[in-house]
Design a protein that fits this description.
The complex is a heterodimer of chains A (180) and B (189).
Chain A lengths: L3 E8 L17 H12 L1 E7 H10 L9 H6 L1 E5 L11 E4 L3 H10 L4 E5 L2 H9 L5 E7 L1 E2 L15 E10 L5 E7 L1
Chain B lengths: L3 E9 L24 H14 L2 E5 H10 L6 H8 L2 E4 L11 E4 L4 H11 L3 E5 L2 H9 L5 E7 L1 E2 L14 E11 L3 E8 L2
Parallel strand pairs in B: 1-5, 1-6, 2-3, 2-5, 3-4
Antiparallel strand pairs in B: 6-9, 8-9
The chains are: A alpha/beta (180), B alpha/beta (189).
Chain lengths: 180, 189
Amino acid sequence: MRKIKAHFFISLDGVVESPDKWHFPYFDEEMGAAVGAGFAGSDAMLMGRVLYEEWAAYWPEHADEPFGEVMNGMKKYVLSTTLTSADWNNTEVVSGDVAGTLAEIKAADGGDIAMSGSGTTVRWLLRNGLLDELNLLVHPVVVGDGLARLFPADEPAAPLELRSSETFKSGVLNLSYAPA
Amino acid sequence: MAARIVVTEFVSLDGVMEAPGGEEFKYPGWSFEFERGDDGNRFKLDETMRADALLIGRRTYESFAGAWPNREGEFADKFNTMPKYVVSTTLGEPEWNNTTVLASGDATAQVRELKERFDGELQVPGSHRLVQELIASDLVDQINLMVFPVILGTGKKAFEEAPERRNLQLKDSKVVGNGVLVVTYERAA
């Protein structure tokens, strides 16, 4: 069974929005290795509509950057109720019976399905029992600033299991949780 | 010699710190559902014994004052005997032993003054509103968190909207019991 693995850069106060504003001081070799390892077993990406639009506007024009070829070439699934088609190479829109379609995708042959960001989609997957891993790189900073958090108020409770934890020299925690 | 202010909280993975040990809440006493193990108990006991006084808000005071005087043991003896400073404009004569009310209405000024004259570790457990004020006024020297493996999805958070960014330094981290994370942060140099 293919797993859906979510990955986030997150601050101590739970902010996941605009990591470009707070993440870079903590990027180092350990962080790079963890990000690489997180995607190593995956051959597809899953994202929400907002992230899709951001990336679909960026990556085709930046194919020569690191990750550019991978991003453009890899299979991409976009969860959306509003998109009808997706122009970005190798992208499939998942709509209608999203849970059913995702269950089929997970049951099909292939590597794992990675996510990077897409908080709204991750919360939906968690609520619907479709998320397999929640991987958090917790940065030692309280960001505040009104930026969006991974878990805003009024979510249903969800018990988790801590599968692994690692502490980087930078003070970043690399935590891997699975729904309990 | 200024005091060291140490905030200590039980939090869920989504940062909720409300009512971990009881009181009125959607999930009262939620932290008790997790096994924190001997290591976790040891951490809490060592931490409590390091405290020279408690600095707390009115609601945490009422919760503690309603519970600890009736209990026995190492934790209870320590809580009942050490000095307690309560930031509140509404609390009258406090009944709990060794309690002082800081009542001027300007919590930050009160705490700043206490921090100047007190020598030792002032621990701040719970105390949701007070913690927000202490973080906003940069009076926090250390934050100890016991992070339980659950998303609660509702409740007061240890870090509400902060007006300013706070860079921290991770001093210590370990896993205790069944996937419970214990982390200690200090103000970044």
